[in-house]
Amino acid sequence: MHRKATFTHLAIFILPALLLICVFVFYPCLRTISLSFFSEGKFSLHNYYEVLKSRDTINLEGFSKGFPLGTLLHNLLWITIHLPLTIFLGLFLAVYLKNVKGGSIIKSIIFLGMVMPMITGGVLIRFIFDKNIGIVNEFLKLFGFIPKTWTAYPETALFSLIFGSVWLWAGFSMILYSAGLETIPKDLYEAAQIDGASSMKMFFKITIPLLKPITIVVVTMTLLWELKIFDIVYVATMGGPGSASNVLALQMYTYAFKALNFGKSSVVAVFLAVIALAVSIPMARSAGERR
Amino acid sequence: MKIKTYKKIIHDSLAWIIAFIWIIPFLGLLMAAIRPMDELLHGWWNLETLNLTFKNFIGAWNHSNVPLGQGTVNSLLIAVPATVIPVLIATMTGYGFSRYRFPAKRSIYILIILMLALPQQMIAVPIFGIMNKLGLINNYFGLIIVHTAWGLPWITFFMRNFFTTLPVEVEEAARIDGASDVRIFFNIALPIATPAIVSAASLQFTMVWSDFFLALILMYSPEKLLATQRIPLMRGVYFVDWGLLAAASILLMLVPILVYTFLQKYYVKGMIGWSSK
To answer: A235: which chain B residues are within 8 Å (Cβ-Cβ)?
Structure first.
């Protein structure tokens, strides 16, 4: 069915993109991998050793002394809190808002957090947690908390960013689940209703299983986002105070463009890329199955 | 029946309460931007006295160190070509992948899909090196090329998925009538693909506009900084001028929000399409 391409076809349709991708994406990736393995002109695992044993990456002392725990564990913590919360929130909102009057306007409002640049997302997070004019403090005052800038203390900085980012990102899973709900045929529910199924049962036996492909996509994209988190941290806390909210992407940037240690920065980049590729395998597979 | 309508009213009102809670931070930002500093000190939610001012917006736009007006112009100079060029190239590539056979096609396609997951950190240092050698640091052309190359994989993937759903019969008929492949692409495939192209373009445009990392590593001289780069610089070290920062943030987010508002259908389709399928 597909036609055999002549050289002219390739030169017009395929090669321009391939050339640009090779020079500005593929080659740089290979170069980063090779940089990560070279130290003082020799092939070695020295950079890997340096990064892994560094307290920047994993700081076991943090478990007794408090934050920082190291970027790798910070990203992990981010995933542990942010992933389940945004998935459940998104699914709940998609189901809850399905037949609401003006539901699409409400969805647009919730989706705003996804539309704006993440730099402003970081500003907003810093803003709501501010000591003087942060709404979070005004709310917590009702419960007797003393106002403080939550992003400025090691023990709360990372958690503030994580919870703030839940607010920003929930719109993504909501929009995808909303689209997924539209694809479920109504007669499935009608048939189940005739058989006397409760709405709880219908949700778990029809909705959830049929949303599985969407769930794979949402989980993957959310994981990728959590791994690559950068702008929010940069503008809200700059990874501080004292690296208490530092993350892998920012660690890579600091190593490369502040400390000018390209070997170590490449190791962090490789870590990020390897984890990112690993988490996208299920999505790539499910995309392959459907073809 | 009556219980049902009651339930519906409660359900809908709760939904609007959720929406209200969700938008509170935005309301706060807007209040901080349009109210004078001395009123803000009592909390932006305190409405005992309410004076409105545009001072902060003007202040951010003409900021003495990092004027956002200049940044907005710069960002547009980057975002427009960094949308048009990759969308055009990748539309052709996506079409090529959906219509032709050629050596190593499958392997190349898999490589392109793998690139969708890559973090920008993976190319940062070598890209800086390449651009430095080419003399393209601090140069819009350099940043446009990088954004173009970075956008190509996902747009190719997105457009390929679109073109594979199109029937090829019309194209075959045109071919029998003697039309060349390039003509078929521009006269038949491209017009049909307009909605998909608008989806890809609206998403690519907002991504480039919102980009911070690539700009951060390639743009350094003060007058060339992009809009996103200026926001962190407006934040003082010891004292945060919230009015100014809020106004600047609103101006920055206005562009993607406008794109979303006017192209909502396409934007959402793009987001769903490129992450699934």
So the answer is: 231-232, 235
